[in-house]
Automatic annotation (TrEMBL), chain A:
Pfam assignment, any one: MoCoBD_2
Protein name: Acylaldehyde oxidase
Database matches in InterPro entries: Ald_Oxase/Xan_DH_a/b, Ald_Oxase/Xan_DH_a/b_sf, Ald_Oxase/xanthine_DH-like, AldOxase/xan_DH_MoCoBD1, AldOxase/xan_DH_MoCoBD2, AldOxase/xan_DH_Mopterin-bd_sf
Keyword Cell inner membrane (UniProt): no
Chain intervals for the UniProt region annotation (Disordered): 75-101
Domain Aldehyde oxidase/xanthine dehydrogenase a/b hammerhead: 25-141
Source organism, top-level taxon: Bacteria
Keyword Oxidoreductase attached: yes
SUPFAM superfamilies per UniProt: CO dehydrogenase molybdoprotein N-domain-like, Molybdenum cofactor-binding domain
Lineage: Bacteria, Pseudomonadati, Bacteroidota, Cytophagia, Cytophagales
Keyword terms, alphabetized: Molybdenum, Oxidoreductase
Automatic annotation (TrEMBL), chain B:
Keywords of the record: FAD, Flavoprotein
Annotated ranges, domain FAD-binding PCMH-type: 1-221
InterPro entries: CO_DH_flav_C, CO_DH_flav_C_dom_sf, Diverse_Substr_Oxidored, FAD-bd_PCMH, FAD-bd_PCMH-like_sf, FAD-bd_PCMH_sub1, FAD-bd_PCMH_sub2, Mopterin_DH_FAD-bd
Gene3D superfamilies found in the cross-reference section: 3.30.465.10, CO dehydrogenase flavoprotein, C-terminal domain, Uridine Diphospho-n-acetylenolpyruvylglucosamine Reductase, domain 2
SMART domains listed in its UniProt record: CO_deh_flav_C (SM01092)
UniProt keyword Flavoprotein, yes or no: yes
Protein name per its UniProtKB record: FAD-binding molybdopterin dehydrogenase
One Pfam short name: CO_deh_flav_C
Domain of life where this protein originates: Bacteria
């Protein structure tokens, strides 16, 4: 029998990004790059005080400046019908409160709050005129320091209202049992404010195509969330608002919310009745599009002398703004990662006169893991145990928080992979044991976990007459390679080559999907892609008529403009169509379409989670191993080796998944060693305003990160077996480095970042 | 950014006159610092006199000295064979500064005239006597972890940010200047000044004076040199503190001559002559270096957030000298 080779399996292959060429050649269009006829340009003017009221604002000089079309302030701004857009991300707890509505009143809530927007016929003219706006203020005393306001910390309102809300105090066993433990520790940890700073600045082009039709070319992680927010703000039917985010140049969470500059651009476009383009400056990226909140934590832990944890108490106070309550899952990992009969967690907020925070990669889990995983290391030292052995002695085979089995958990396998690759056996328990000249060498580890979230998603699939398949979904791709992964899933499901598939995303007009955040995209959109492709095949099978009537969808492929039912090894083709000696049945698309009087064949399918979340606890896991070198005289820290291992279920693309892990690891180096947005509390203003003061790692700070995946499918999260990667890539990296620094030097740094001044 | 006039003279005298007769005019070369300052409204020149057409890019290997034109690019100087052979410390310091892209734009003259990176100087809403005399010093009681431990005044505690200048002050360079009153030479140590009551004045240059070249005299420091820069990441960051060290050792490892200067500690590159004297005649050992470091730190005084420099200073001096001594 003449067998044809099966098409190459794409899922798991290290396929190049489908949009790589567009990105590296500049052909990809980002939100600040759309050119519309009659375009105008807007520049924001920010408050120079931190709290108080605007008592006067002089816009005359700006209005007279060349090319200026409008200067909009609270005195002349039109009021949208509903001044309260909602910023929500479906994969995360909600931000409670009212996102800042620009130019709505004279109140100043944070420094650099937009107080005016200048619109001109060129960006340079708008910027010049913005510098001419003069404001007077009645200043009020402000609060920008969390520790000075820790005594006013409060339980989030959502938790007060709902005793089942996850931000409530958690208790398993006895309250604060660690205090009476045999071996105990109590440590405080601080994560300073960190800012997302993706390479692409936040930008929006707002265009009122008609008085009730709005199109936004916007940097967002959720085209539908943005559409919903601004449709609501302007009291429009959602279908009248179109949000386009075909390419997003990184975001790390800061495009999970609707921000003041977006409202300002939309208002300005209304006023000048022309398209308005508004791009933030790097300085403005510090003040008005979120950040990882400054968080104070205290962790108490007790253990038996043979290394069994008997109690953990983890408390945190995170920073939020005065107008929104931003919460995140800082304490989640502590409740489920290790066995302990007694666990207490208490989450509080402190409201400060600073713009609202927003989830930053890994979000609260990364903040919490710094405390938990540092404390695990501290306890291992108290017990004179290898920190890896200590973790193994407290490994959980089912979720101790929810008392459910894990859907899958291959963290032990990750430990083994990582320990082998870093050379954990070289590690000495005694700090300062290894050195190379003046460089002290240390090893550390940190564990991360994040929920394998899945939401409902819909994908539309069309087979076009030329034999290509077009898939569409409203989800975005902020950099992980969503379109590439979906192309691979579609290729395997359809049995056709990836170059015959086009996956379009980043447009609110496409079928619905989750916001890209919380590591949920592949978990959610992947199954929708798979099911849409299966539905498409099924439709074709039916349309192809008698010849295919007995075939199963999986036996059908598409080749060379034809629908092909393989007569492969099993020779199961029905005798009556006389094809015993033919390799396959082939019917051309055009024939199928003509026979059925159709231009194309399409299927749109929604895929959503079922009851699996009730039965199983579903998480991704990671472990990071760091080798650091610390200069004993200058206190400089260099991460000389970093190994990140993940149990993230099926790996759809080894290359882009590895790329996510490496990016997360580099983000973790920044978190551990340099990222620190500092405010001078006297003024309530950041003194770190650019990349000269706010450091992120450069190439020389990052070793070649080694990545290993367990790559075992999770049969419960979805049919693909994926669990999500984006967050676990960074969660646990910072404590791995901090623990390695301790192993090298004997110095325990509990306040990040670990800069040279803390080590000399 | 304010509106400004732009001229690009091809004759040195025309450039000097353009700035000398207009108090609101300033020279621009690579622009890597000035353009940023203009974008932020920290500097608001009404006229930019672009000197990039002036013939000041040459590096002349003269007998006894190198004469480096003011418009020679940082990257060109760092890669120059004569510079690397005769003044390797200068090449090391240049390559420790900024990024490759910036070194390809920045000139030698501009590098020495770059302004402090003090956050308060950069933010026009904050007090700063250097930017706006009489408004106070924001850093004095503020976030001053990058700030001075030597030579400051109650008007200003900013530091000079250049790496190259730390090497040049150690190497006894001389700045060649041309101005409305003619040409003159300024010993490098006298180019920058301490803030005193006039922190707005960074240097001793007179209005309209143009740096045309810097002369670096030949010396014995062709082998045992090191530029140790401590920063918060591996590259592309201003120094928390830096040390330029140069030693001349005899066959018994006795120090015949030494040069030592620090960056990131004062309003000017900080030459450590007393510490140099403490090194001469002694064996090149860690103990000798430690004693010199102690001498070097005499008179240092810290503020709330920069006390670490009192320890980082001597540590970095020791490290720089150790590395210089062992350089093969």
């Amino acid at each position: 029998m003449n067998e044809q080779p099966k098409p190459k399996k794409q899922i798991g292959a290290p396929m190049n990004r489908v949009d790589a060429r567009q990105k590296v050649t500049g052909a990809a269009t980002y939100s600040a790059e759309y050119q519309l006829p009659n375009m105008t340009y807007a520049v924001l003017v920010g408050s120079t005080v931190t709290k108080g009221r605007l008592t006067g604002i002089d816009t005359k000089a700006a209005e007279r400046a060349p090319g200026v079309l409008a200067v909009i302030t609270h005195l002349n701004a039109p009021k949208p019908p509903s001044p309260k857009p909602e910023g929500k991300d479906p994969s995360q707890p909600q931000t409670q409160g009212n996102p800042l509505q620009v130019f709505n009143d004279d109140k100043i809530r944070f420094n650099d709050q937009p107080i005016a927007v200048v619109v001109a016929d060129s960006w340079e003219r708008a910027r010049y005129a913005a510098g001419l706006v003069q404001a007077q203020y009645a200043k009020e005393a402000h609060q920008t320091n969390l520790e000075a306001n820790a005594d006013k910390a409060f339980l989030p309102t959502a938790a007060k209202k709902n005793p089942k809300h996850p931000m409530n105090d958690y208790q398993r066993g006895q309250v604060d049992a660690y205090k009476t433990g045999a071996v105990k520790l109590e440590s405080e940890y601080v994560i300073p404010t960190e800012v997302h700073h993706p390479m692409e600045l936040q930008a929006i082009t707002a265009h009122w195509e008609a008085p009730d039709r709005l199109t936004l070319y916007d940097k967002t992680q959720g085209t539908l969330a943005t559409r919903r927010d601004f449709a609501k703000q302007w009291n429009l039917p959602e279908e009248n608002v179109k949000v386009i985010a075909t390419y997003v140049g990184g975001a790390f969470g800061n495009a999970l919310h609707s921000w003041p500059h977006e409202s300002a651009a939309i208002l300005a476009a209304k006023v000048v009745n022309r398209p308005v383009k508004l791009m933030l400056t790097r300085e403005q990226m510090f003040t008005m599009v979120g950040y990882r909140p400054y968080t104070w934590q205290k962790l108490g832990m007790s253990a038996t002398p043979d290394g069994k944890i008997t109690g953990i108490t983890h408390e945190s106070i995170g920073q939020t703004s005065t107008y929104e309550e931003f919460t995140e899952a800082t304490l989640a990992q502590t409740r489920m990662m290790y066995q302990s009969p007694n666990v207490t967690t208490r989450y509080r907020l402190a409201a400060l006169d600073i713009g609202s925070p927003i989830w930053m990669r890994g979000p609260g889990e990364a903040t919490g893991a710094f405390a938990l995983e540092s404390a695990m290391d501290e306890m291992a030292y108290l017990l004179n145990l290898d920190p890896l052995e200590f973790r193994l002695r407290n490994y959980t085979d089912e979720d101790p928080e929810k008392n459910k089995p894990w859907s899958t958990k291959f963290l032990k396998e990750c430990y083994k992979l990582g320990a082998d690759r870093i050379g954990w056996s070289k590690r000495q328990l005694k700090p300062g044991s290894l050195r190379d000249g003046d460089w002290l060498i240390g090893y550390g580890m940190g564990v991360g976990t994040f929920g394998a979230h899945r939401g409902a998603a819909t994908v539309g699939a069309q087979l076009l007459p030329n034999g290509t398949v077009l898939l569409q979904c409203a989800t975005t791709d902020i950099g992980p390679g969503t379109g590439t992964a979906m192309t691979q899933i579609a290729a395997d499901t359809l049995g056709i080559s990836p170059d015959k598939i086009k996956f379009e995303l980043g447009n609110s007009s496409f079928p619905k999907a989750v916001t890209q955040g919380g590591s949920s995209t592949v978990n959610s959109v992947g199954p929708a892609t798979q099911e849409a492709c299966l539905a498409l095949k099924d439709k074709l099978r039916t349309l192809a008529g008698a010849a295919f009537s007995t075939a199963k969808a999986e036996d059908i492929t598409f080749e060379g403009g034809q629908t092909v039912m393989r007569n492969d090894a099993n020779g199961k083709l029905p005798l009556q169509i006389g094809l015993r000696n033919n390799p396959s049945v082939k019917v051309s698309y055009s024939d199928i379409l003509r026979q059925n009087g159709q231009q194309n064949v399409s299927a749109t399918v929604e895929a959503k989670p079922g009851g699996e979340g009730q039965k199983y606890s579903m998480y991704s896991f990671s472990v990071h191993f760091a080798e650091v070198r610390v200069h004993q005289l200058t206190g400089e820290v260099r991460v000389s080796k970093l190994v990140s291992c993940a149990d993230a279920g099926t790996i759809v693309n080894e290359k882009t998944a590895g790329n996510q892990m490496k990016g997360g690891a580099v983000g973790g180096i920044g978190m551990a060693l340099m990222e620190h947005a500092r405010i001078d509390d006297r003024f309530g203003r950041y003194v770190t305003k650019d990349f000269a003061d706010y450091h992120v790692p450069v190439h020389a700070d990052s070793p070649a990160v080694e990545v290993a995946f367990v790559n075992q499918p999770d049969p419960h999260v979805n049919a693909l077996g994926t669990k999500g990667i984006g967050e676990i890539a960074i969660i646990g990296v910072a404590p791995a480095i901090a623990n390695a620094v301790f192993n090298a030097t004997g110095k325990r740094i509990r306040e990040l970042p670990i800069t040279p001044d803390k080590l000399i | 950014m304010n509106q400004f006039q732009y001229v690009r003279p091809t004759k040195q005298q025309a450039a000097i006159e353009a700035v000398a007769k207009d108090a609101t005019a300033t020279f621009i070369a690579g622009g890597t610092n000035l353009v940023d300052l203009m974008k932020r409204g920290v500097m608001t020149p009404q006229k930019l006199v672009d000197i990039n057409r002036l013939p000041l890019t040459r590096i002349d290997a003269d007998p006894g000295k190198l004469r480096i034109g003011a418009l020679a690019l940082n990257s060109t100087v760092a890669d120059d064979k004569q510079v690397r052979a005769r003044q390797p410390l200068l090449a090391l310091a240049l390559n420790a500064g900024a990024s490759a892209q910036l070194r390809n734009m920045a000139t030698v003259g501009g590098n020495m005239l770059q302004r402090t990176r003090c956050s308060y100087f950069y933010d026009t809403t904050m007090p700063c006597n250097k930017r706006e005399p009489g408004t106070g010093c924001g850093a004095l009681e503020g976030i001053n972890r990058m700030h001075a431990i030597f030579g400051f005044s109650d008007k200003c505690i900013a530091v000079h940010p250049s790496d190259m200048s730390v090497a040049l002050v150690a190497l006894d360079a001389t700045v060649q200047v041309s101005g409305p009153k003619g040409n003159r030479s300024i010993p490098f140590a006298e180019l920058h000044r301490l803030p005193g009551d006039m922190p707005q004045k960074d240097t001793t240059l007179e209005p309209g004076e143009l740096i045309t070249a810097v002369d670096v005299p030949d010396g014995p420091f062709t082998k045992h040199v090191h530029y140790q820069k401590v920063r918060e990441r591996a590259s592309y960051a201003f120094a928390l503190l830096s040390v330029a060290a140069a030693l001349d050792l005899d066959s018994n490892n006795i120090i015949k001559a030494a040069r030592l200067a620090m960056g990131g500690v004062a309003h000017k590159p900080w030459r450590l002559t007393a510490a140099e004297q403490a090194l001469v005649g002694k064996p090149a050992t860690e103990e000798t270096f430690r004693q010199a470091a102690t001498v070097a730190m005499q008179g240092a005084k810290a503020f709330k957030h920069n006390a670490y420099k009192l320890q980082l200073g001597p540590n970095t001096i020791i490290q720089a000298l150790k590395t210089a001594a062992s350089a093969a």
